[in-house]
Write a structure and sequence with these properties.
Largest sheet: 9 strands, mixed
Low-confidence stretches: none
Oligomer: single chain
Radius of gyration: 21 Å
Strand content: 15-25%
Shape: globular
Mean pLDDT: 97
Length: 426
């Protein structure tokens, strides 16, 4: 089937231009200033549409297999398409944990059957994500995007060093959840003013940055390609900045909630509980500075759905994790681009170009490339209402916020993965 998008504003390589986009056989056939006349194409008219390359999220939790009461491949990837994403990388905290090819196969089968976008799973670093025995990295390598034990930090430095050496030999990234469990001591929100004022146990920043520091020393020793998950502290940013100056093969991500909130904005509600926790204002500012100087390479959502019951225990008793696939772009566009903190081109780099390059996934917006793109109305304003999410998870700290940027259409592999109701087509 041919699809023709008539006269949308196409953003690519830092420029914006009114073009017509023709898709056929899964690829972008033409990007032209004049709209071609075709009798056999489905024509989509998107007034006020801004077209971007499909966003790439290297850190999501799709919960299947094992926890399909929280989310499934089908619901999670539809939510991703609704948020403008055409590629996601689900983490391995599943049941079974994908720590061998046999344990990875159920997830691969679920993805092949139900995913509406490109879905590239992680393999675990250790068996069962228990940190004791290295997983079957070699047999999983052809089938996974990288290796991670996300949800847990690898506590044993010798085990992490062995994993780095094997990952390097396989040409794969180690993607690290950095958390020194010996420093947490029961803390569950940031060890800052809010925790002290409200009688909560604090999780110190050192629980993150101390393990970042340890791992960077191991990268220096092994030469492994290394990526840090969900950076939240100013110390982590400075350590990674120094490592890059040194020439280490290191990248990192942060998430929208760390860029918008600080711990003084917490509420006594499970939708504000995640790991790592929302930190202080100095940390938030350091993350923004890290984005601006290139230390922070990309923004990932850490989309982590739970049931309503699991998020009903307030800050202390709720499980860690919030959803974010359907709010990431509008929140970041509203909070960072419209006020002038970032340019729109920089946000596209953070959500598409940089993760696509680092992880070797995602398609460029050019003739002949796979047709993976999304279209937003940047002037449309709406209130974030979790009950309207396509994700099964509804817990979002952004609930009730007014944001600009509504997704009108997402095309993945030349097929419509999401289209807003009332989208004009013929």
């Amino acid at each position: 089937m041919k699809i023709l998008l008539n006269q949308v504003t196409v953003f690519r390589k830092g420029t914006a231009e009114k073009l017509s986009v023709l898709v056929e056989d899964g690829r972008i056939v033409s990007l032209s200033k004049e709209a071609p006349t075709l009798s056999d194409a489905r024509v989509i008219e998107l007034k006020n549409g801004s077209l971007f390359p499909g966003f790439v999220d290297v850190h999501v939790h799709l919960r299947e297999p094992g926890f399909s009461y929280k989310e499934t491949i089908a619901t999670g990837t539809r939510a991703a398409a609704h948020g403008g994403f055409t590629a996601v990388c689900p983490m391995p905290n599943l049941k079974p944990v994908p720590d061998s090819l046999a344990h990875l196969r159920p997830q691969l089968e679920d993805i092949a059957r139900d995913s509406v976008i490109h879905t590239y799973p992680y393999g675990a670093i250790t068996v069962g994500e228990q940190g004791e025995t290295l997983a079957a990295l070699e047999e999983m390598a052809p089938h996974v995007v990288a290796f991670s034990d996300d949800g847990k930090g690898v506590q044993d430095p010798e085990k992490m060093k062995q994993a780095m050496r094997r990952a390097k030999a396989l040409g794969k990234l180690i993607v690290a959840h950095c958390e020194d469990e010996s420093l947490i001591q029961g803390g569950y929100i940031h060890d800052g003013a809010y925790a002290k004022a409200h009688g909560h146990r604090g999780n110190p920043s050192a629980s993150e940055w101390k393990q970042v520091e340890r791992d960077l020393a191991l990268v220096r020793e092994t030469g492994c390609a290394y990526h840090v998950c969900h950076v939240s502290t100013k110390e982590s940013v400075e350590l990674i900045r120094s490592a890059k100056r040194e020439g280490l093969d290191v990248t990192c991500e942060t998430a929208p909630h760390y860029l918008v909130f600080h711990d003084g904005m917490l509420q006594e509600d499970g939708r504000f509980k995640m790991n790592p926790p929302i930190r202080g204002e100095e940390d938030r500012q350091a993350l923004i500075a890290g984005i601006l100087d290139g230390t922070v390479d990309m923004i990932a959502t850490d989309h982590a759905p739970h049931s309503a019951e699991e998020k009903a225990g307030g800050l202390e008793k709720s499980l860690n994790g919030i959803v974010g696939l359907e709010t990431a772009f509008p929140v970041l566009y509203t909070e960072l681009v419209r006020p002038g903190v970032l340019t729109l081109a920089q946000l596209i780099d953070l959500m598409h170009t940089n993760p696509a390059k680092r992880f070797g996934i995602g398609a460029p917006l050019e003739e002949g490339a796979t047709a993976d793109f999304t279209v937003f109305d940047l002037d449309a304003e709406e209130t974030i209402q979790p009950e309207h999410f396509l994700s099964m998870g509804k817990s979002s700290p952004f609930a009730g916020r007014s944001v600009f940027g509504t997704c009108l259409l997402t095309i993945c592999g030349g097929k419509i993965a999401w289209q807003a109701e009332g989208g004009a087509s013929r």
